[in-house]
Each structure stands twice: as structure tokens, then as C-alpha cells.
């Protein structure tokens, strides 16, 4: 009974994985497992996600990210100035370490700094969340949906960056303006002194990161990157292999199977294409609100070749509801667990702000 309860708890907590697994299993009824299944899964995307997760977890455990942020924010004393720095750190760091890792790293730091300022803490968490989701849209390694679309549509690095740069710059302007809504109070920063010691492991993860970037830039084959990452981890830091989000990787695999199966049924394929055709960005953004933008990218990409429209739609679609980007749940969970958390107010302000940003960016995406 205890094991069954644990399974129920896991399935409820990992709702996106649960949905993806149900869809995959249901599609197997219509299309029984066969050799074609092996071609459904994009092994390059899953391998690169795994390697990047290993790299980021290694750097995070070394304390590098907190050390850098602690050095920066120790120079500022007002809540508004500190919030601006934290928001900008999340925005730019998410381009390199992914949006969820940026929030896992810097939201706890924010909780320490603003633990006595309820409204400041709440609004800073909301803006940091938006910053991580928006900053991550610039690069292929910023979030899982970008890495998938980058590989699926065979983007060049330059084309990808040029596609997302205008929206990223607009997002930065909107975020800077938004900091004005954070109250300006005197803040004493005393708990942000972090240190790290340079070790051979930091060098190891730096080498893995360089190989990952070479793979993303199509210089190396993903299988070389995967083999090197696993071999080095096994030899020098075996416990790090427990850190990647294997549930996310399994979620991708399930969606690949589901999309592969329904794509092989001509009648269903034609109906979905008729709904998406000419509305790629709007549909991508809308679907992200209810199933989150990562699975949305995988699903819709199987039915259209309008890469730029989907790329913009799922990244803008990370705004809006609390589940539009799963990274947003990270901030909410941290805030909800804090003392005197006003969860209803947080969700209300989060929703209003995110939808306001979503509508603004969608408007500019159509204009530019």
C-alpha cells in the first residue's frame, strides 16, 4: 500500500510526465509497437539535455553561480536596486544554464535577502521567474524546447539567435521598467557571502561544457559528447549521474512516441495540420498555457515546418499561466514554503503580470 501511495504521489507531482505517458500508451493501441518506433525518438535532443544537465549540476554544486551573484548584489543596499540585479542575473544566466536551473539557484538567495519584506520578496520572485523564462529564449541551450526545436529544424546558431534577438531585447526593456513596481526599502545584505574552491571537477565540467557547445554548434556528433560525458562522470564524479532530471527526459521520449504514432495516421494528421496551418505562433502560445511549452513544442513541430513561428510561440507562451513554463512552478514552490507567504496574492499578481507581458510580446512578434 505504501508503494502504491508513493506511485500516486509521484504521478500527481509529475503531472506532465503522467499525461505524456498516458498519451503514448493510448497511441500504442492505434499503432502497435513496431520497428518504426525507434525512429520516433530524437536521440540527439535527449542526449544533449542529459549532458547539459550534468554540466550545470556540476557547476551549481561547486557554488560558482551563488558566488558570482553574491559578489554582485553585495554592492547594492536598496530593495529595488537589489531586485534589479537579481532579475538581470536570472535573465542573462538563464541563457547559459537554462531557466529552471537559474531559478533553482537564485530564488533561494532571494528568499534569504528579502525574508523580512513580504511585498518585495513576492514581486522580486515574480520578476525573476519572468526574467528566467524570457532570457532563456535567446539561446538553444536556454531551455529544453529551444534545444529540441534547434535540433528538429536544423537551425544554424546565427539564424536561431537572429530569430529570437528582437523579442529578447524587448523583454529586457519590459523587465527593467517592471522593477519600478518593487518598493524601495533599505536592505542589509549579510547572508550572501558564498565561496567556492577551484578543483579538478570544475575543470572537468568546463571541458564537458565546451564539448556540449561544440555539439550544439554542429562541430561534434552528439554521440561523442554523450560518451565523453558519461565516461568522465563515471571516472571522476559518479554521484553526479543521479542529478539529471530523468523524468523530463522520459517525458520527451513519451511525447516523441505519441507524435510519431498520431503522425502515422493520415486522418488525424490532416485535422491537426488544418488547425495549426497559418496559426502556428498563436496555437503554440495557446497550447503552452494548458500543457506547458516544452511538450507543446514537441507536439506541434510534428505537423508544420514553420520553425520560427513555433519557436516564438512556445517561448512567449512560457508566460501566462503558472504551468505554461514548468520553471515557473519552481519559484512558486519556494515562495509558498516561505514564512507568511501570501499564495493567493502571488498567483494573482503573477497571472496579471505574465499575461500583460504575453500580450505585449505577441503584439510585437506579429509586428516585427
Would you spell out the secondary-structure blueprint of this structure?
Layout: H1 2-13, H2 15-30, H3 37-40, H4 43-62, H5 64-73, H6 79-97, H7 99-113, H8 118-135, H9 144-152, H10 157-178, H11 200-216, H12 222-236, H13 246-263, H14 266-276, H15 280-291, H16 293-301, H17 307-316, H18 326-336, H19 343-367
Helix pairs in contact: 2-13, 4-9, 4-11, 4-12, 6-7, 6-8, 7-8, 7-18, 8-10, 8-18, 8-19, 9-16, 10-19, 11-12, 13-16, 15-16, 15-17, 16-17
What are the defining features of this structure?
368 residues; mainly alpha; globular
What does this structure look like?
The chain is mainly α and 368 residues long. Helices cover 74% and strands 0% of the residues. It is built from 19 helices and no strands. Helix 2 (15-30) runs parallel beside helix 13. The longest helix has 25 residues, at 343-367.
Instruction: Give me the Rg, rounded.
Output: 21 Å
Main β-sheet, in a few words?
A: none
Q: What is the number of helices? A: 19
Topology pattern, helix = H, strand = E: HHHHHHHHHHHHHHHHHHH
Coarse shape: globular
Structural class: mainly alpha
Proportion of beta-strand residues: under 5%
End-to-end Cα distance: 57 Å
Assembly state: single chain
Low-confidence stretches: none
How many strands in all? 0
Amino acid at each position: 500500500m505504501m508503494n502504491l501511495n508513493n506511485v500516486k504521489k509521484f504521478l500527481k507531482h509529475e503531472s506532465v510526465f503522467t499525461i505524456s505517458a498516458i498519451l503514448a500508451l493510448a497511441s500504442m493501441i492505434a499503432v502497435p509497437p513496431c520497428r518504426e518506433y525507434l525512429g520516433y525518438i530524437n536521440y540527439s535532443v535527449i542526449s544533449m539535455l542529459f549532458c547539459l544537465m550534468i554540466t550545470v549540476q556540476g557547476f551549481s554544486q561547486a557554488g560558482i553561480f551563488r558566488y558570482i551573484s553574491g559578489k554582485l548584489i553585495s554592492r547594492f543596499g536598496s530593495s529595488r536596486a537589489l531586485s534589479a540585479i537579481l532579475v538581470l542575473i536570472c535573465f542573462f544566466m538563464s541563457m547559459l544554464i537554462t531557466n529552471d536551473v537559474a531559478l533553482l539557484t537564485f530564488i533561494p538567495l532571494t528568499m534569504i535577502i528579502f525574508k523580512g519584506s513580504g511585498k518585495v520578496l513576492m514581486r522580486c520572485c515574480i520578476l525573476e521567474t519572468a526574467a528566467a523564462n524570457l532570457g532563456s529564449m535567446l539561446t538553444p541551450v536556454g531551455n529544453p524546447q529551444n534545444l529540441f526545436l534547434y535540433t528538429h529544424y536544423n537551425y544554424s546558431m546565427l539564424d536561431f539567435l537572429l530569430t529570437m534577438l528582437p523579442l529578447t531585447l524587448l523583454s529586457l526593456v519590459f523587465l527593467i521598467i517592471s522593477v519600478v513596481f518593487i518598493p524601495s526599502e533599505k536592505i542589509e545584505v549579510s547572508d550572501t557571502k558564498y565561496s567556492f574552491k577551484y578543483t579538478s571537477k570544475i575543470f572537468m565540467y568546463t571541458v564537458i561544457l565546451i564539448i556540449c557547445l561544440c555539439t550544439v554548434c554542429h562541430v561534434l556528433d552528439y554521440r561523442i559528447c554523450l560518451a565523453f560525458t558519461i565516461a568522465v562522470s563515471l571516472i571522476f564524479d559518479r554521484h553526479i549521474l543521479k542529478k539529471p532530471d530523468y523524468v523530463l527526459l522520459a517525458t520527451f521520449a513519451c511525447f516523441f512516441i505519441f507524435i510519431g504514432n498520431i503522425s502515422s495516421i493520415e486522418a488525424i494528421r490532416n485535422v491537426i495540420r488544418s488547425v495549426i496551418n497559418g496559426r502556428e505562433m498563436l496555437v503554440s502560445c495557446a497550447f503552452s498555457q494548458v500543457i506547458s511549452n516544452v511538450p507543446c513544442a514537441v507536439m506541434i513541430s510534428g505537423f508544420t515546418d514553420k520553425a520560427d513561428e513555433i519557436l516564438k510561440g512556445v517561448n512567449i507562451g512560457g508566460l501566462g499561466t503558472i504551468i505554461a513554463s514548468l520553471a515557473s512552478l519552481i519559484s512558486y514552490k519556494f515562495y509558498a514554503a516561505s514564512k507568511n507567504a501570501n499564495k493567493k496574492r502571488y498567483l494573482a499578481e503573477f497571472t496579471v503580470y505574465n499575461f500583460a507581458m504575453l500580450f505585449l510580446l505577441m503584439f510585437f512578434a506579429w509586428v516585427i
